[in-house]
Amino acid sequence: MPERASTRSEESGTLFSYPRYWAECFGPAPFLPMSRAEMEQLGWDSCDIIIVTGDAYVDHPSFGMAVIGRFLEAQGFSVGIIAQPRWQSADDFMALGKPNLCFGVTSGNMDSMINRYTADLRLRSDDAYTPNDEGGKRPDRAVIVYSQLCRQAYKDVPIVIGGIEASLRRIAQYDYWSDKIRKSVLIDSGADLLLFGNAERAIAEVAHALAEGKRLDELRDIRGTTVLRDALPSGWTEIDSTRVDWPGRLDKMPNPYEYVYNQTDNNPAAADAPAPVKIIPLPLQHHHALEVERTYVRLPSFEKVSNDPVLYAHASRVLHQEASPFNGRVLVQRHGSKEIWVNRPPLPLETPEIDGVFDLPYQRRPHPRYGEAKIPAYDMIKTSVNIMRGCFGGCTFCSITEHEGRVIQSRSEQSILNEVEKIRDQVPGFTGVISDLGGPTANMYGLVCKEAHSAIGQRCRRLSCVFPTICKHLKTDHSQTTQLYRKARQLRGIKKILIASGLRYDLALRDLDYIKELVTHHVGGYLKIAPEHSEEAPLGQMMKPSIGHYDEFKRLFERYSAQAGKKQYLIPYFIAAHPGSRDVDMMNLALWLKRNRFKPDQVQTFYPSPMALATAMYYSGRNPLKKLHYKSEKLFIAKKLEQRRLQKAFLRYHDEENWPLLREALLAMGRGDLIGDGEHQLIPPERKAKPPWQAERGKAFVAKGAFKGPRGGRK
To answer: Quick one: 553 and 490 in the same domain?
Structure first.
């Protein structure tokens, strides 16, 4: 029989509708145990599931291991934590004994490579997710290393990998640190199952299936999971997306980005009968009616994308266009003799479900094992509240969309207010200031597609709801957020509510009441904002709004600050060396910065994170936002270290250490006119130092009194 395409999580209702597992009888643990002694105090002789993480264990809903651990505990499972284990042997991986059901492995809240290396590939000496900010407490490619050591510790225990590192490596991906294409991390780690995105739905289904005695190799069709197959199932239709066209060929291939959307099959009964895989090239000619649940898209193989940068960019484009939970299809990519099978994206959580996740009994502080040690990542968020998940901005350099999805999942107002009160009552030394009510973006709370449940919403494949323009179907009324701010600051004991998450200012311009409320009550002197660039071409490659939107927001920010009698400032963020950003673009950005009297101290150099669209641009030199072929226009890519340093130097034009490099570059660009002391010139000319003998002679004259008075007149 062909494999079914629906999953238990879709059929069984909400996240919390499963029958509780037997360990529920123990009740919630004060902290999830990190040692055998703690397990014994709880009355446990073993753990059902052990989570291995690259972060220190902080029992707070901003830390992934705590969210998944507490969620599984609420499902009735006993859960232990192995945090930042030593990886020189398997000893630490046996500290809690053999898990009854599985290991869950994550690198932590950050990708381990981005955590350990700067954008210039220098080793970092610190780690904000480690006690006392100590670096070197996690290995490179932590998911791979941890998984292999779990296997070494207990060969027969299933291994499930997840978190952002696994999520961004679910298919073949460009690896900036080795400058090559790497296989899916599911293969490299030797794990049994990969979860991508926020994984509550998938992990609940997996855990309960294992508890029922099922094997992981039986769990093939769960949304939000990636599995390894030897052969493909029967009864499915394959859409071939393994090639791109040479323009002008007589046998021109169909456009691989045109799709026929989910329609009713004329003969649904036929789906129940075994059938060979039917292969259809894109687009689906003659209006073939295909069920999205029984169709998969074949990506170019690992071997092909490793040898063909254009095919890599094409695969990246297809993956992002199949990212919608409403119409995204299964993706298949061959790795040698194996098939990577990426199931459909997870369904977003409904408000009662996400409330349930955030309302779990977190202690909201680090595990007592760490004593008085400071964990910088915790200190930064301990008085902040995450009010939503997801981001529909789609910025090409950002990994939020690839991990959390484009659908905004908002908590209820009451759940958020309850958490503010928990912070007030539980956080030691609380001063009355909430550091943030935000999330991936400050002002997307409650903003959803007005046509999400209509035919329009169900077939939409836009990569962004706000680029190149704000979609007419998007709700842009911020009144729900404004009301939340007002209620939160009226709570007893709350003196100030700050907004520290990045603001999508083009969206905010649709609701001036929100901007006024924000500026009047919720800016602590400075507000972070990210125009990223001033020039249209790089902004287009980033999928960011034009600089004119920033100028308009700045004007309103200053007006409302003046009306409130406050001196407040915008802190803009910019990126150097983004794919498509030429030296002349960076020069123009530097001139814009000088005209606007900005002297950025902290600037960001583009960091190619796995699976991002901008990373596909970086590797391939092509733009996957457009139709790809082998004669597609090539982008300028600043790959060499000296090129990246120059672009960063333009952002810090005011730093005299950068002036020699900038003078040389401006002369080479034929823009020597920008060297000088004039108001419209970028950097000063070189000042020739006096020869040593002249300097000594001048000192001698002064010593002999050769110059007198303020005019310096001679005798």
So the answer is: no
- Number of structural domains the chain divides into: 3
- pLDDT tens digits for range 54-105: 999 999 999 999 999 999 999 999 999 999 999 999 999 999 999 999 999 9
Whether residue 465 lies inside any domain: the answer is yes
What's the mean per-residue pLDDT of the chain?
89
Say yes or no: 114 and 166 in one domain: yes
CA distance 550 to 562: 18
- 324 pLDDT more than 90: yes
Token pair belonging to 379: 């200190």
Q: Give the separation between CA 511 and CA 498, rounded to whole angstroms.
A: 19
Integer angstrom CA distances of residue 281 from 244, 260, 275, 278: 11, 12, 18, 10
d(CA 357, CA 47): 21
Tell me the residue range of the domain where 453 lies: 383-522
| Same domain assignment for residues 59 and 170 | yes
In this structure, are 653 and 535 located in the same domain? Answer: yes
Q: Do 529 and 508 share a structural domain?
A: no
DSSP assignment string, 236-271: -EEEE----BPTT-TTPPPPTT--PPP---S-GGGG
Q: What gap in Å lies between CA 500 and CA 490, rounded to an integer?
A: 19
Q: Does residue 174 belong to any structural domain of this protein?
A: yes
3-state secondary structure at position 652: coil
Q: Higher model confidence: residue 32 or residue 260? A: 32
Is the model's pLDDT at 2 over the cut of 80?
no
Query: What's the Cα-to-Cα distance from 262 to each of 83, 225, 239, 457, rounded to whole Å?
Result: 44, 22, 14, 12
> What CATH number is associated with residue 447?
3.30.750.210
pLDDT in tens, 635-694: 999 999 999 999 999 999 999 999 999 999 999 999 999 999 999 999 999 987 656 655
Asked if residue 589 is part of any domain, the answer here is yes
**CA gap 529, 573 in Å, rounded:** 6
Helix residue ranges, H only, 324-469:
351-358, 376-381, 400-404, 413-426, 455-459
Kindly state whether residues 159 and 135 are assigned to the same domain: yes
Residue listed under structure tokens 């266009």: 321
Query: Is residue 362 assigned to a domain?
Result: no
Residues 6+ apart with CB under 8 A from 408: 388, 389, 390, 391, 392, 444, 445, 446, 447, 448
Q: Last residue of some domain: 498, 522, 546?
A: 522
361-416 per-position pLDDT tens digit: 999 999 999 999 999 999 999 999 999 999 999 999 998 888 899 999 999 999 99
**553 and 542: one domain?**
yes
Instruction: Look up the pTM and report it.
Output: 0.89
Q: What is the pLDDT of residue 176?
A: 97
Give me the pLDDT at residue 455, please. Answer: 85
> What is the tens place of the pLDDT at every residue in 120-158?
999 999 999 999 999 999 999 999 999 999 999 999 999
Last residue of a domain, one of 486, 501, 522: 522
Rounded CA separation 14/357 (Å): 12
DSSP per position, 454-523: SHHHHH---S-SSSSS--TTB----HHHHHHHHHHHTSTT--EE---SPB-HHHHTT-HHHHHHHHHHS-
- The per-residue pLDDT for 402 is 86
